[in-house]
Write a structure and sequence with these properties.
- The complex is a heterodimer of chains A (228) and B (527).
- Chain A is an all-alpha fold and 228 residues long.
- Chain A contains ten helices and no strands.
- Chain A is extended.
- Chain B is mainly alpha-helical and 527 residues long.
- Chain B contains 21 helices and four strands.
- A two-stranded antiparallel sheet of chain B has the order 1-2. Chain B has a two-stranded antiparallel ribbon with strand order 3-4.
- The longest helix of chain B is centred in the middle third of the chain and has 32 residues.
- Classes of the chains: A mainly alpha (228), B mainly alpha (527).
- The interface between A and B is large, with 39 and 61 residues.
Chain lengths: 228, 527
């Protein structure tokens, strides 16, 4: 499948935007700027999903990442003091050997990918043409599109995209889906455990008596601070 | 139960699928119960959670055994739409993980008391990490494999930072987390490239499509088109995948995190990290490289030279860097790096000798390494860190039994005959020689010779422990060791395992041979 017309224009616009914004995410000194650039990366990737015909994934990407995760990120950045890094004048790339090595390896990776994907794509296309698979797929797609129900505004058709994702997520990928829930549970346990202060542990009787004895003055001091 | 039956009626998955993951289900449920126990119990009763964790590991082992005995001819069983495959390989590795988890829980109890961090979450996290490992052993799809790998890794990030009031622990966790996340990204990159080539995430499907892609075929003009156009993509995928996995098993260009993480982590976590996590990563490595990429052996894209070179460097660097270490946890970290190199040799050999070697070596390594760390744990007391090699001085006078055990673990790590370590190394090196004779290529011989020479070097630092314990002039300290019944039991179990496998290995070899057959059959199917 080769992109033509407006599709190609949009693809290049969003692909370049995603790449540049990702680069700026890493390079920005201000953490808030970083987060903002990350948001534009995610939005551009969502646009690329739409070009691929995966509307549901695009919507989920914007709702979950941009709407949920990134807002949380911004909250955390604004609550935590990150001033020191902003004020720094030191160059970000200050170690020449490391910069050279990383540029070298990323250059090699880019060359390898360009060669590999070019050749591989051509090989797969040749194979598909040989088997007449492309025509088959196009005919089937057209038929499917005909069969789709029309939306209420009568301007477009409702895709089966969401249904397909739901099917594969809760059927084919049901096991990884469940494992991911354990993963999230572990993440919650870990963050709560690591973030709990000594005072909170003492209150819930979850602290070693000797550690408590050593830390007792500290705890009362903290208590004074929070009350006062 | 009602919910499960309901799931059955909508045909999402059948009850049979759930039976296949019964051990993991038991561990998950017990992990959640352990969390509740942690909330309910006051601090001084936190140890009950540890005993509960041991019981749940026992239950999981029982259900694993019933899975084995229900299917003794070990016909591979697929479940969850091909997401996992229960075969001898999976059962064998799951057994290794359960042994490692049980020993870790046993050696942890007193250590956490001494650290003043006896929390029930620790045992819950160990259980969840084991669940991740077990899914790694039976996953048959890149998605489920990746998620289980992340489950295991994330749990270990938390466990490494578990003694959170200790600076070293925090630093270790930070390093491990950053590099681990980075390596996961590389691994994912390789997986996505393979998916691009094969159009499927199922390992069997990937193996089949790669086989087709590499086959020369005749196009309509009567010209031979070989699989060359897809080769660069496959090659890139294999390289990225290997790089990510080399991180996980701490093979040499990617080993930097291991010494720091091992030194800073709480010692029982170090023991579990160097055995369970490493064995699980090897299970993943074997699974992908035999089932999905096994067809590449003997073609122009053979990955064996890559793995062989990495293994050779890993063995060299691990052994020589260990020689100069003063901290015993750091020393064992380098020793664990070099051992990863030895195990990689089994993959290079790629025949039943090599696979038996991998399995037996990982089993013995789990026993002897947790044993060695158990002794280091017993040296940790209030006010004494005890993780310097010289802290063992005079141990032979103070605690002759412990010193003898440590000596045996060390000799086994080095691979002295009549210990378990020797049997593992024998099969690993023997597999290389067999392969070399079969293919008539001399570099297999050179590789085996290289590994043997470096094994001799490794005796230098293993024997150093023994020298310090028996010939040390002064006693490092005269306070009694921090021993508990559970720690003692764990040490004795590891010792018995190491010695039995060393002296009478035949039943283990037979079992491993029987259980590993599907793997060799899978690799041979492409030839």
């Amino acid at each position: 499948m080769t992109l033509t017309g407006w599709e190609a224009v949009f693809f290049w616009v969003f692909a370049v935007t995603a790449l540049m914004a990702a680069l700026l995410t890493v390079l920005a000194r201000n953490a808030v700027h970083s987060a903002m650039f990350l948001i534009s990366t995610l939005v551009s990737v969502a646009a690329l999903f739409i070009l691929l015909g995966a509307e549901f994934v695009a919507g989920a990407q914007i709702l979950v990442y941009v709407g949920g995760v990134m807002v949380l990120f911004l909250f955390v950045i604004m609550l935590v003091n990150v001033g020191a890094e902003e004020r720094g004048k030191e160059a970000i790339f200050n170690r020449t050997p490391q910069v050279v090595a990383s540029l070298l390896f990323s250059g090699l990776l880019v060359i390898g990918l360009v060669i590999g994907i070019n050749q591989g794509w051509r090989a797969i296309q040749e194979r598909d043409e040989r088997d007449n698979r492309l025509v088959e797929v196009q005919v089937r797609r057209a038929q499917e599109e005909q069969a789709l129900p029309v939306a209420a505004t009568n301007t477009m058709k409702i895709t089966r995209d969401t249904e397909r994702i739901g099917n594969s997520l809760y059927r084919y990928a049901s096991l990884p889906f469940e494992i991911a829930s354990i993963l999230l549970l572990v993440a919650i346990i870990g963050s709560v455990m690591l973030a709990r202060t000594i005072k909170q542990e003492a209150v819930t009787d979850d602290l070693d008596p000797e550690v408590l004895k050593e830390a007792a003055p500290l705890i009362t001091e903290r208590a004074d601070l929070t009350e006062g | 139960m009602f919910l499960l039956l309901q799931a059955n009626t909508t045909e999402l998955y059948s009850l049979r699928d759930l039976m296949l993951i019964a051990p993991e289900l038991i561990l998950t449920v017990c992990g959640c119960v352990a969390l509740v126990m942690e909330v309910v119990l006051p601090y001084r009763k936190s140890k009950w959670t540890a005993y509960f964790a041991l019981v749940s590991i026992g239950l999981a082992a029982a259900s694993l055994a019933s899975l084995y005995f229900a299917n003794r001819d070990l016909f591979p069983l697929d479940g969850f739409y091909g997401m996992l495959r229960i075969d001898g390989f999976a059962i064998l590795f799951k057994a290794i993980f359960l042994i490692g988890a049980a020993l870790t829980v046993a050696v942890s109890m007193r250590y956490l008391d001494v650290e003043g961090e006896q929390h029930g979450e620790y045992y819950a996290l160990v259980l969840f990490a084991t669940v991740g490992m077990m899914f790694l052993a039976c996953g048959f799809d890149l998605i489920s494999l990746y998620i289980s790998l992340e489950l295991m890794a994330l749990t270990f990030y938390v466990l490494v930072a578990f003694t959170k009031r200790e600076k070293r622990s925090n630093e270790a966790a930070m390093k491990y987390f950053l590099l681990g996340a980075f390596s996961s990204g590389i691994l994912l990159y390789g997986m996505s490239l393979l998916y691009g080539v094969a159009g499927s995430t199922n390992l069997g499907e990937i193996g089949r499509s790669i086989g087709v892609a590499l086959q020369p075929s005749v196009n309509e003009l009567g010209m031979m088109t070989s699989g060359i156009p897809l080769r660069p993509l496959i090659l890139l995928g294999v390289i990225a995948l290997s790089a990510g996995l080399f991180f996980k098993i701490s093979a040499v260009p990617f080993h930097m995190w291991a010494p720091d993480a091992y030194e800073g982590a709480p010692t029982p976590v170090t023991a579990f990290l160097s055995t369970g996590s490493k064995a699980a990563s090897f299970a993943l490595y074997l699974r992908i490289f035999t089932e999905a990429l096994g067809g590449l052996r003997g073609t122009a894209l053979d990955w064996a030279p890559l793995v062989a070179i990495v293994a050779a460097i890993t063995i060299l660097v691990g052994n020589w860097a260990a020689v100069t270490q003063e901290n015993s946890k750091r020393l064992l970290a380098y020793s664990s790096i070099s051992n990863a190199g030895y195990v990689l040799l089994g993959l290079v050999a790629g025949n039943s000798y090599g696979y038996i070697g991998i399995v037996i070596y990982l089993l013995v390594y789990t026993l002897m390494n947790i044993g060695a760390f158990g002794i280091i744990i017993s040296l940790r007391r209030r006010g004494i860190i005890g993780d310097n090699v010289n802290d063992m001085a005079g141990l032979a006078q103070k605690a002759p039994g412990m010193a003898a055990m440590m000596a045996i673990f060390m000799l086994s790590l080095g691979g002295l005959p009549a210990t378990g370590g020797f049997i593992g190394k024998y099969f690993l090196f023997g597999g290389l020689l067999q392969r070399g004779r079969l293919e008539e290529k001399s570099w297999y011989y050179w590789l085996a010779a290289w590994a043997i020479i470096n094994t001799v070097v490794s005796f230098y630092y293993y024997v150093r422990f023994i020298k310090v314990m028996y010939l040390g002039e002064r006693v490092a300290d005269d306070r009694p060791l921090a021993l508990s019944p559970a720690l003692r039991a764990a040490l004795v179990v590891s010792l018995i395992g190491v010695i039995i496998i060393g002296i009478y290995p035949q039943p283990f070899i037979d079992l491993a041979q029987k259980l590993i057959t599907p793997l060799t059959a899978g690799a041979l199917a492409f030839r």
